[in-house]
């Protein structure tokens, strides 16, 4: 009976070793690695082709590209585009050389980091590590399963202090072929639990490290059993014979906004939707479940880079200065170990990417549930800079681990000292598209246009002093219902294009629509709820209107009131509902004219002084209410001169004014406001008997 037990254990052990053995079936005889200068004509389009697999960009402006040789030789599709490229090597030769260097398959403790290992071995290794160091290390068998049912384990390392710790999150092996990623994570985990250094102990008392060893276990195993250079997961893509999603384009952060592909055959296929893959969902959920996380690294190879946000835009992140400081310090710490330079830079400096793990860790989706912190999310590209690339020999595992363990300590210390704080703000997120809408310019004095301007189908943006109106309208309605206007108006712009151009510059809130709910004579507004000038069910029907009217009355006496708008560069005085002059027309005109001159003297922007009805008829407006009878009765013997100021500009940007005009707009109107206050303080208006 004992002999059978021994035999059974032997068979199980042999089976485990065999299952972990590297044995590829894919040959690369028809593929080559070429090096191309990126700056010449046609190269940008070539690099974005789904036929190429970009391995590396050098600091000298060269790109290393894997491609089928018949596409660049003879009558190949890309022969002309690659005429400046040189062949570096045969892919099959590179992989074969890697296999010659990777013959050792021993699992003894002293040799563990001198070899790459399979999924089952690594899973058991982490489990054993936690058992041997249970006082500071905890093994989580699964945070979720991959597409093919493999567990994605996690390991937590930290010294218990009785208080909730800030977390440092490391995830590994998101790209299957980048074996050094997973091996380096193992080295760092082992270093943290076995180190006797006081510095390491202090760090583990302050923060908890979380390792997710396998983001992409299915893809990793596929590189060991079939295709050594496989990158993606093993997802089956509906309608395509090509398998796999690039998990590092699948995260829910600016997904599919450039630097990825919608072609399932591409190496950067982003999947059918954001976070469509179980592996992505599992890691996002586990990150959230372990808040607060103050730092996150997604480990990759190759190029020796330390990359901070963003990958999807050239704009600096809100914390770019602090994150650059961390990246530079980590780079210096790495260099001190073996003299290897890891360049600290923004991610988009390598090439555009969207939907990446590190941008997600730093972004809004993750930060909104991260306990008031924003995780400093980085992508680290490990060794080397191109000699071996993805096929790094196993004798470089230990030195790569040593230098990055030093960098990881600096990373944790700096973020523990100065974590990034997150304050949730009202986020601009537009859901409406304006593809069917256009902006047209119409002469207001031409026969047939007046009725058109009063239609509920139009949104009048501006009426110029020279009698032109800028109007937003559905292009189909214009063509079908307003043929006369179509012939007399000219096209200015596509509204969707205007909004997209604005969104490149800043964020934006929705246009105000409360002006016509105020209690003044009706007319110049609409009773159609679909109209942009719908006046509501009754005067002051809206809570926002009621609140401001009541607050005005509660703070009497008020001697002047301004309702701020855009755009048009106008100073508008009462009335909007009648052509008759207000009782105080002369004084209000004089002061507005003086304000116009004062504004002009600052930055030479002319604000036209005129009556409100000179723009277009309006009723129920805030400024007329300030000056009108209802407000005056509660204003303790004074009448507030109510004016509307239409700020910049006169039409180039309209409601979509770029943020770089905020300061000059403020600078020019502040002196005018001071004059407004001085004049009405010296000569306030009184109700006429």
UniProtKB/TrEMBL annotation:
Signal peptide range in chain numbering: 1-19
Stored Gene3D superfamilies: Zn peptidases
Subcellular location: Secreted
Active site: 381, 646
SUPFAM superfamilies linked to this entry: Zn-dependent exopeptidases (SSF53187)
Keywords from the UniProt entry: Carboxypeptidase, Disulfide bond, Hydrolase, Metal-binding, Metalloprotease, Protease, Secreted, Signal, Zinc
Residues covered by the Peptidase M14 domain: 115-415, 524-680
Gene Ontology cellular component annotations, sorted alphabetically: extracellular space
PROSITE patterns given in the database record: PEPTIDASE_M14
Residue span of region Disordered: 253-280, 526-545
A molecular-function term among this protein's GO annotations: zinc ion binding
GO biological process: proteolysis
Necessary cofactors: Zn(2+)
The UniProt record lists the keyword rRNA-binding: no
Predominant location: secreted
Role this protein plays: Involved in the digestion of the blood meal.
Family membership noted in the UniProt record: Belongs to the peptidase M14 family.
Protein name in the entry: Peptidase M14 domain-containing protein
Protein's organism: Amphimedon queenslandica (Sponge)
């Amino acid at each position: 009976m004992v002999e059978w037990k021994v035999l059974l254990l032997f068979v199980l052990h042999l089976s485990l070793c065999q299952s972990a053995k590297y044995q590829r079936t894919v040959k690369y005889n028809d593929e080559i690695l070429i090096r191309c200068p990126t700056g010449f004509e046609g190269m940008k389009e070539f690099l974005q082709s789904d036929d190429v697999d970009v391995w590396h960009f050098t600091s000298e402006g060269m790109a290393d590209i894997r491609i089928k040789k018949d596409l660049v030789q003879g009558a190949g599709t890309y022969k002309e585009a690659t005429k400046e490229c040189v062949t570096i090597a045969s892919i099959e030769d590179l992989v074969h050389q890697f296999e010659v260097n990777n013959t050792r398959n021993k699992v003894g403790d002293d040799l563990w980091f001198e070899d790459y290992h399979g999924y089952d071995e690594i899973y058991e290794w982490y489990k054993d590590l936690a058992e041997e160091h249970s006082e500071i290390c905890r093994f989580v068998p699964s945070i979720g399963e991959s597409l093919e049912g493999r567990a994605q384990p996690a390991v937590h390392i930290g010294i218990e202090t009785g208080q909730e710790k800030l977390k440092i999150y490391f995830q590994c092996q998101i790209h299957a072929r980048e074996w050094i990623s997973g091996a380096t994570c193992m080295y760092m985990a082992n270093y943290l639990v076995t180190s006797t250094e006081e510095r390491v102990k202090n760090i583990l008392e302050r923060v908890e490290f979380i390792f997710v060893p396998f983001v992409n276990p299915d893809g990793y195993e596929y590189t060991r059993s079939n295709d050594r250079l496989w990158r993606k997961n093993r997802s089956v893509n509906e309608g395509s014979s090509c398998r796999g999603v690039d998990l590092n384009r699948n995260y829910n952060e600016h997904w599919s906004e450039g630097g990825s592909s919608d072609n399932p055959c591409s190496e950067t296929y982003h999947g059918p939707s954001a976070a469509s893959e179980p592996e992505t969902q599992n890691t996002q959920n586990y990150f959230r479940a372990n808040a607060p996380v103050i730092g996150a690294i997604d480990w990759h190879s190759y190029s020796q880079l330390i990359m901070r946000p963003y990958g999807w835009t050239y704009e600096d992140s809100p914390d770019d200065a602090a994150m650059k400081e961390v990246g530079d310090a980590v780079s210096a710490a790495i260099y001190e170990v073996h003299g290897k330079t890891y360049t600290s830079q923004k991610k988009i400096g390598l090439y555009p990417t969207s939907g990446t793990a590190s941008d997600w860790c730093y972004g809004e989706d993750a930060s909104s549930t991260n306990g008031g912190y924003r995780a400093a999310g980085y992508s680290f590209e490990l060794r080397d800079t191109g000699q071996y690339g993805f096929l790094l020999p196993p004798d470089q595992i230990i030195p790569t681990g040593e230098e990055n363990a030093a960098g990881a300590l600096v990373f944790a210390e700096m973020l523990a000292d100065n974590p990034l704080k997150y304050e949730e703000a009202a986020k601009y997120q537009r859901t409406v598209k304006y593809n069917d809408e256009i902006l047209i310019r119409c002469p207001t004095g031409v026969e047939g246009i007046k009725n058109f301007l009063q239609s509920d189908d139009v949104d009048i943006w501006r009426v110029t002093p020279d009698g032109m109106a800028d109007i937003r309208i559905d292009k189909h309605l214009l063509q079908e219902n307003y043929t006369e206007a179509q012939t007399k108006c000219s096209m200015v712009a596509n509204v969707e294009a205007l909004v997209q151009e604005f969104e490149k510059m800043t964020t934006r809130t929705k246009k105000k629509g409360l002006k016509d709910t105020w209690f003044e004579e009706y007319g110049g507004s609409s009773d159609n709820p679909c109209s942009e000038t719908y006046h509501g069910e009754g005067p002051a029907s809206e809570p926002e209107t009621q609140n401001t009217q009541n607050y005005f009355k509660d703070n009497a006496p008020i001697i002047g009131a301004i309702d701020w708008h855009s755009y048009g560069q106008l100073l508008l005085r009462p009335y909007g509902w009648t052509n008759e002059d207000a009782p105080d027309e002369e004084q209000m005109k004089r002061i507005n004219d003086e304000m116009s001159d004062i504004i002009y003297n600052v930055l030479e922007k002319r604000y036209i002084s005129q009556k409100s009805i000179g723009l277009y008829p309006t009723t129920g407006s805030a400024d007329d209410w300030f000056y009108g009878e209802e407000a005056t009765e509660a204003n303790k013997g004074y009448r507030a001169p109510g004016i509307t100021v239409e700020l910049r500009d006169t039409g180039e940007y309209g409601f979509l004014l770029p943020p770089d005009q905020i300061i000059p707009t403020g600078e020019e109107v502040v002196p005018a406001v001071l004059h407004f206050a001085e004049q009405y303080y010296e000569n306030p208006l009184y109700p006429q008997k």
